[in-house]
Amino acid sequence: MIAFAKKNISFKLGILLICAGFNVNAQNAAKFPLIPYPAKLVAGTGSFIITPQTAIVTAREFNSEAIELNSLLQKGLGKKLKLDNTAKIHAIKLVYDASITAPEAYSLSITTNQLVIRAKDAAGVFHAVETIRQLLPVSVETNTVHKQLTLPAVSIEDQPAYAWRGMHLDVSRHFFSVSYLKKFIDRMALYKMNKLHLHLTDDQGWRIEIKKYPKLTEDGAWRTFNNQDSSCIKRSKDNPDFIIDKEHIIQRNGKTLYGGFYTQQEMKGVVAYAAAKHIDIIPEIDMPGHMMAAINSYPFLTCNGENKWGTLFTRPICPCNETTFEFAQNVFTEIMDIFPSKYIHIGGDEVDRTDWGKSDACKALMEREGIKDLPALQSYFINRMEKFFNSKGRKLIGWDEIIEGGISPTAIVMYWRTWVPDAPVKAVKNGNTVIMTPGEPLYFDNQPDQYSIYKVYHFNPIPKVLNTEEAKSIIGAQANIWSEQIPSERRADYMAMPRMTALAEALWTNKADKYDFYLARLVEQYKRMDALKINYRLPDLSNLLNEYVFTDEGRLSITPPLPGLTIHYTTDGTLPDAKSPELPSPLIIKKSELIRLAPFTASGARGDVYNLNYKQQQMLGAVKIAPPKPGLACTYYKAYFKETALMKDAKVDSTFTTDKIEVPATVKAPSFGITYKGYIDVPADGIYTFYLTCDDGGVLKIGPSVTVNNDGNHSAQERSGQIALKMGAHPFHLDFIEGGGGFTLKLKYSVNGSEPQEIPANWFKN
Ligand code: ACM
Known about the structure:
The structure is a single chain. By secondary structure, this protein is of the alpha/beta class. About 25% of the residues lie in helices and about 25% in strands. It contains 19 helices and 37 strands. Strands 15-9-8-20-19-18-17-16 form an eight-stranded parallel sheet. Helix 1 (about 10-30) crosses helix 19 and helix 2 packs parallel to helix 3 (about 120-135). The radius of gyration is 29 Å and the shape is globular. The two termini are about 30 Å apart. Residues about 1-20 have low confidence and may be disordered. Bound molecules: acetamide (ACM). Acetamide binds near residues 349, 399 and 416.
């Protein structure tokens, strides 16, 4: 591997300046490790000392928040403070202030004499309490008793940028206990998130008791292991976080079943718990599609009594029978009794409407009501349900498919389909309120990588084409966690954290220029997460590749990304554990081999495993091409491919030439494949690294062998590989497939360890 020496003076100066900036950030981060960072913070001098003698003085409106604050302080002091409205000095004061008009806003003034929280609404006071929590020592989280607690003097004025700061959890595909929901709510509160959307029902399990239809949970909450479970079981061989929580496995009539559900009473307890933390729980009962668990017990719900999978989705319930509306209204009546939320989610996504088109009842209804097509028939269902919701004083939320057949402007649209970018714009122009949850980057069930936090932090909920007035219809955003591949609390923690902190700051503080400072504060927050036993994803080991090439010897050095982490590795193909040898600095590699390594915390928790494939290689000689033409020769196939190799037998749709590796703007097909063929003409000998990001798959060959393999149907991910090239032209072949949805293709290069950069257009020849 060729060593890369950074000789450039101005580059060094840049590093110095960055380091100086980092120190300032690190100092401030340690003193005010707040996430989300307040809208305005001015540090004071000195500190306020809380002792068991300090009194709490509260306005009547904020009694509950005073109790929350007192419970927090009790964890650190071992006893509760007195609530004493006569206390004059050295007190903690919760003051009603009608001049603070923004919802959820608060001010916090900490001086050597007193701590004063001001707000107009109780949510504002609660957020101030969570700010105080983040200023208290981490040891408070583990009930460590202190003689006194010290808070830095500071003046904060704070309010959220967006009203909807949501998290979603799918409790259907895999189930999560009441105690986990409460932990999840605690974490949301810690980071000032305020909406928890529970996806309570789906094909794979019905999770909420409905007294009128007991079979929904007696039968619908339980299943034999399905293909999602078997995939988790397979993955658990390499990662114990994929072991299915035993708590949710039962034996019944000689069968092993997976599942569980919440009784209405249990769920009311969760709702009250969340309400005390100013978090609304929004229930989703997904219909008319995704209803297999219900239809199994109540087959009258479909148009033809059948209950099976269509091409992609299960058969929906039938919007053409009055019995369906009776069922749906009865279910939602009980749901509204459990959940006081102003918003109720009806799902409405991914509906296979084929059976509706064949049903005599639907034909008759469409004729009678003048419904022109099947999307409009779905709108008929949603519109009727919305009227029912409104009659109970609630607002309907649906996934963005609900706008396809026309929708009333009072429904709230939850945008998720990244590949339909105009859906939220259309909804806004139709007068609807919109919540943004685009799959990229807000599906937190997508495997996180080194770019995820950056992308979430910089997520802007407002589509660029909206003007200021229209932008007001976007009330915020939410991250969704679908649990097909999340069978345990530890895996759910890993997927949610720390990404949720980035989203919290994007939606509350909304200042992209604070990113480096946020990262410094996040390092501080990890300590609190450790105390709270959150299985957060450890930071990435930066600048690692998947495939390495060296000519004489390879050298591998890694600086752990957090203090206290150590890196352990194996070379025999086995998974590294905390007892595997610690990686020396550097590790010298003399032969082709696979190095598997991972960071470990002091308690032995393992971060992501990295597989680094080192190959010894001679420099590849250039080939002669005469006369070269500019660009790459491309072939376009308009079909769906599961993997790139399947393109070779497909019918060619068209051909074109390009000097840019990207999805051509003219391509409109939902699924397709493109091959890019020709030569890459490099200007100097070197070890070249190629970074291929694609959604879906791509495979890059330079010379005779594969340089980067990023094949298959998957969300946007980068994979990288190296090759030693002599100056001149080398055969280049890139296959790319789009399965539907992502439309992402990027290829960058670096040479001898330089920063990744765009490939100059004139390097491509054919
Ligand atoms: C969804 O992901 N089907 C809303």
